[in-house]
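How it folds:
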Amino acid sequence: MMSDESENDGVYVDNQESDIYYKKFKLLLEECSNMQRSNEILVFRIQETDKITKRRHKEVNFFKQRLLKNYSEDWTVIPKTNLIKEEEDTKPSNLVAKERIKEEKLEEDEKPEKPVKTPKRPAKRTKGKAEKDPNAPKRPSNPFFQFCQEQRQILMEQLNSELKPGEPEPTKQELTRQLAIKWKSLTVPERKIYVDMYEKSKEKYVVEMSEYKQMKQ
């Protein structure tokens, strides 16, 4: 038979082992609780960041609409030069140079087509300047000017309808600037309409000019 002392020793060892496992269990519970708190903080921060981002987008869209309505400045078309300069300051010089070359090429492509200027011949010495014949056919306007002729009145009415009491009417320079912005925003198929109109007008001008020269002879 076992003595009382040996039985007490066995009970002590069991209690000691159970105390160790219980301490480990408590530590695990504490770590899980800390992880849960950290996750809750992260979720809260993500939600707050999402709210701030959405609010910022709303504010940006509001100010864009306000600029368009009050000052006729369409910031969906006009490049944000200040922001571009700030981004360029933080980029390497070689990347900035490449991006500037791309922007210059895009700007050249978007410029309105200008009529081809023929070299001026030296004026002959005559007693008086030759008067232009009012019956002579007129040269057709290039695609951009044909677009301006069609859209000028429509744009003028639109800008006047958006004016507030006491505000002056837009000047010719402002109207031309707005027309240029609209021209740049046109797609290739939309511009092709005016290019085709120009080509047809040019063909008609050639025919009328040949008939006019025959009548003059």
